[in-house]
Design goal:
Elements lengths: L2 E2 L5 E2 L3 H13 L5 E6 L2 E7 L4 E6 L23 E2 L2 E2 L2 E4 L3 E6 L8 H9 L9 E9 L2 E8 L3 E3 L3 H13 L7 E6 L2 E7 L5 E6 L16
Parallel strand pairs: 9-10, 11-13
Antiparallel strand pairs: 1-2, 3-4, 4-5, 5-15, 6-7, 8-9, 10-11, 11-12, 13-14, 14-15
Length: about 220
């Protein structure tokens, strides 16, 4: 599976897209599981009820080289900030994420403040910026400013990053957490080795045909 952002750049991971592709492939077969290969690694997918897919993800990477950062730094509390967004936690869950915790997600003007963090020289490949609010130990409200500079309604890898960052920073100890985003909810379970299971729905938005000229080399 290959994933391209709207600017044409290839992305390592998109868990919403992965869930949708897995659902399409499984709906056309008798299998209940499959493995998808992405630039971010292999992802196990399985049916998880009506129109829901569970993805099993490898443990995240926390060291500064894996984010990647331009120089050595504490990834738990990076010395980066923009307006009300400050000291994000950086984690790579197949792609780079920086999670900023705030008192109220909806009071933050994300398009105004997040680009400065996303484009900071400390991030040679940029990063996805999550703005997270801890509502309860098992509930996080989240919005993500994704590469290459888009406010998205949902972000599967961003949801995983927010859960991992909240646990690392001691904001919750729960192993099963719901992440609420403008586009809906995802359910995430963290295992002992910090590998994850993400469960979420898939639905058909539209269908069509892509014309292909087989004579075109």
């Amino acid at each position: 599976m290959r994933i391209y952002n709207v600017d044409g750049a290839e992305a390592q991971t998109c868990l919403n897209a992965t869930r949708c592709v897995a659902w399409l492939l499984l709906s056309g077969s008798d299998n209940n599981t499959l493995i998808l290969e992405t630039l971010g690694g292999l992802i196990d997918a399985a049916r998880a009820g009506d129109s829901h897919i569970a993805l099993r993800l490898a443990a995240p990477r926390w060291d500064w080289r894996s984010i990647p950062l331009a120089s050595e730094a504490d990834t738990l509390l990076l010395d980066l900030g923009s307006g009300p967004l400050s000291h994000p936690t950086a984690v790579n869950v197949g792609n780079p994420h920086l999670v900023c915790f705030v008192a109220s997600r909806d009071e933050i003007d994300v398009p105004r403040w997040a680009p400065a963090i996303q484009n900071d020289p400390m991030l040679p490949e940029g990063g996805n910026v999550g703005v997270a609010e801890i509502v309860a130990p098992d509930l996080i409200r989240l919005v993500v400013w994704e590469r290459p500079g888009i406010l998205t309604r949902a972000c599967g890898s961003g949801a995983c990053a927010a859960v991992l960052a909240a646990r690392r920073r001691g904001l919750t100890q729960e192993n099963r957490i719901t992440v609420d985003m403008p586009g809906g909810q995802l359910h995430i379970e963290v295992h002992k080795d910090e590998s994850l299971t993400l469960i979420g729905p898939a639905a058909i938005a539209f269908s069509g045909r892509l014309p292909v000229d087989l004579k075109d080399p």
